[in-house]
Design brief:
- The strands form 7 sheets. Strands 1, 3, 4, 9, 11, 12, 13, 14 and 15 form a 9-stranded mixed β-sheet that branches. A 6-stranded antiparallel β-sheet has the order 8-7-6-5-2-10, covered by helices on one side. It has a 5-stranded antiparallel β-sheet with strand order 25-26-31-28-29, with no helix packed on it.
- By secondary structure, the protein is mainly beta.
């Protein structure tokens, strides 16, 4: 028994294993302290650096999104962009990352854009149209970064808004105004959009786009757009009065808020180039068809009898963009001729890819000394009226042409049609042109019929009017008739090979070798005939108005 007690006592007094255990505990404690310091100091510092780099990355991506929206607004092609709205921390073997914060990219509520005090030939821009647009905003979310920057896209500009009451700054000036202020680009954003996550991909789809500008005049003109920028920034952009900042524009007014609005004044008496475009980040309505505008230098030309006149008009939507595939109807309100291609006093054409439609008309002999009025109407356009700068009213979907046809426009010395009142018995009135049709691509066949009892021989001829490809082709200007070269809308020519139209018979004669391909037209033909009356050779002249068709 005593021996057992002694052995137990020796075992309890043995301290040989204490040192290794204590050493292990100390090492483990040191590791935990280091890990704790790493987790509490190093990891946050590294993650804050990740958040800072993310903020810089987002600035570049928002700039590219701004570019994509502007490209969609000019090219008419959808443009996509990706924004890294959330932060991804690096993977760690032992340390723990906080939850990944996710920022938000969204469009704001619709804001009003107004245009006033402007005018152009269509009358539409005199109606002070209003539009809607949305401001695009990115709101970041970070766990550690103290200096957060919100990014905003408005009016084609990238805005950086810092925390701590620092004023926002321009990240990109965009293209709202040219350097001289005389070119204005209204880039409107439609569609509701909101998304939050690690990455956000979106597509800017064109609604109404154009690279062409509308030329407008200013009579105290003003453009009002929504803004998140402070007044001082707009003062720097525009200049407080003419000659400073951006010439030809000035700051007319400013209202704060979120967002506020700024009024950009346009110099009275100046001409400006205006372009409005709309893209959408979601769904949006189709633009409304609005107005018809003349593309000719004047709507009141002076036109001689038989001289072809081309009438070109363009269709536009509410943003001023040329509208393709729209229907334009034309009618002769007063006048004796017919439209080429229709053979009547009405015609219809569709606007081409450039938004333009063309009609052709030549005044007839009965129009001499009068005014020919032709009215063109955009089907489906706005039937409202506008007041033009001269005080007259104009229906937005209508363009009216008035041709001044001189009374002496058909009495040129080389115009044999003037001989129709030469005192003869007008035997030529018994000869008519029964048919005029295109033959092949470059010729027109006429059928002359003599219903009288006297043989007629054609000796001279003159052509006025037009034949060609319509509505968007070219006119033929020369050809060969009965073996003689003739100019269309030129002087009368003596036929080298006169042709006869025997009494009670028909004769076919071809106007060939036309220098343009032909499918229709309107020609006024004057023919001088010789005939025998009581053994005496006499001359007489007849004038025919002929519609050419296939």
């Amino acid at each position: 028994m005593n021996s057992l007690k002694q052995q137990l006592k020796r075992l309890m007094d043995d301290e040989r294993a204490v040192s290794p255990v204590v050493g292990f505990v100390l090492i483990f404690a040191l590791i935990m302290i280091v890990f704790t310091l790493y987790q509490s100091s190093v990891v946050p510092a590294q993650n804050e650096e990740v958040e800072f780099k993310h903020s810089q990355t987002v600035e570049g991506e928002m700039s590219r999104l701004n570019d994509a929206i502007q490209q969609a607004g000019t090219s008419g092609v959808p443009q996509s962009a990706t924004v890294t709205t959330g932060v991804q921390y690096p993977d760690r073997a032992l340390a723990i990352n906080p939850g990944s914060p996710a920022g938000s990219l969204s469009t704001g509520d619709p804001q009003t854009v107004t245009v006033s005090g402007l005018s152009d030939g269509s009358g539409y821009w005199s109606t002070n149209p209003t539009f809607e647009t949305r401001i695009i905003g990115y709101q970041p979310s970070y766990n550690l970064l103290q200096q957060r920057t919100e990014y905003t896209l408005e009016n084609g500009m990238l805005i950086k808004d810092f925390e701590n009451d620092n004023p926002p700054t321009l990240g990109s000036e965009g293209g709202l105004l040219s350097d001289d202020g005389k070119r204005i680009n209204l880039l409107l954003v439609a569609g509701e959009y909101q998304k939050s996550g690690v990455t956000t991909s979106l597509t800017a789809r064109p609604v109404s786009t154009s690279t062409e500008y509308v030329r407008v005049g200013s009579d105290g003109g003003e453009i009002s757009v929504p803004t998140t920028l402070p007044r001082d920034t707009w003062t720097e952009i525009l200049g407080d009065g003419f000659g400073a900042g951006t010439p030809n524009v000035k700051l007319n007014g400013y209202s704060g808020g979120d967002p506020g609005s700024v009024k950009i004044g346009l110099k009275s008496g100046e001409s400006y180039a205006l372009r409005a475009a709309e893209v959408t980040l979601g769904s949006s309505d189709e633009p409304e068809l609005k107005y018809l505008k003349s593309e000719d230098s004047t709507t009141e030309p002076t036109v001689d009898v038989g001289t072809p006149e081309t009438l070109t008009v363009s269709a536009h939507d509410e943003f001023g963009t040329f509208a393709a595939g729209e229907t334009v109807e034309a009618k002769i309100v007063s006048g004796s001729g017919t439209f080429a291609g229709s053979g009547s006093d009405t015609a219809t054409a569709s606007t081409d890819d450039g938004g333009r439609a063309t009609f052709n008309y030549a005044p007839g002999p009965a129009d001499a000394g009068s005014t020919v009025e032709i009215e063109l109407t955009l089907v489906g356009g706005d039937t409202g009226t506008a007041t033009l700068p001269d005080g007259t009213s104009k229906q937005l979907n209508t363009v009216t042409y008035e041709f001044d046809v001189p009374a002496d426009s058909d009495t040129d010395p080389d115009d044999i049609g003037s001989d129709i009142d030469n005192g003869f018995a007008l035997t030529a009135s018994t000869v008519t042109v029964e048919n005029a049709r295109t033959v092949g691509n470059n010729a027109v066949e006429f059928v002359f019929e003599n219903s009288g009892s006297v043989d007629m021989k054609a000796t001279r001829v003159q052509f006025n009017g037009y034949v060609g490809k319509f509505p968007n082709g070219k006119f033929a200007t020369e050809g060969r008739f009965a073996g003689t070269d003739v100019d269309l809308n030129g002087k009368a020519e003596t036929l080298s090979s006169p042709f006869s139209v025997s009494a009670g018979s028909t004769t076919s004669v071809t106007l060939s070798n036309l220098n343009e391909k032909t499918d229709n037209g309107l020609l006024i033909i004057s023919v001088q005939y010789e005939y025998t009356d009581g053994g005496e050779t006499k001359t007489d002249t007849a004038t025919y108005s002929v519609t050419v068709s296939k």
